[in-house]
Amino acid sequence: EVQLVESGGGLVQAGGSLRLSCAASGFTSDDYAIGWFRLAPGKEREGVSCISSTDSSTYIADSVKGRFTISSDNAKNTVYLQMNSLKPEDTAVYYCAANPRGGSCQRRYFEVWGQGTLVTVSA
Questions:
Q1: What's the CA dihedral at 15, 89, 13, 8 to 10 degrees?
Q2: Exposed, middle or buried, 99 (CB in 10 Å: 0-12/13-18/19+)?
Q3: Are 20 and 109 in contact (CB under 8 A)?
Q4: Side-chain half-sphere CA neighbours of 113 within 13 A
Q5: Burial of 121 (C-beta count, 10 Å sphere; 0-12/13-18/19+)
Q6: pLDDT, tens only, 28-85
Q7: What is the 3-state secondary structure (H, E, C) of 44-71?
């Protein structure tokens, strides 16, 4: 059973940085994808970033491009989301999710979700 545990959220001032971590376990295949999503009050869930184990390809949403970076440490089975130049509109609960069946970052394939971590950016 795939399990995901997020950490690293918190309160930061606008312009600051945070790094989120997603510790993954239980994959039965080396071919999977891990993505970051966020849910802000009154808004739809947004796909923020994704990394594929198949070819290490990454996806970054336009709304955070140039500010957020996704990376992975395979030895630690952990995916990171480095968030720089944070804005108040980045305030949300951030979830990591896994596609355990392959390396696609298409949203419909994400089956396993973490518990979420709150990021609050003050003006």
A1: -100
A2: buried
A3: no
A4: 15
A5: buried
A6: 888 999 999 999 999 999 999 999 998 889 999 999 999 999 999 988 899 999 999 9
A7: CCEEEEEEECCCCCEEECCCCCCCEEEE
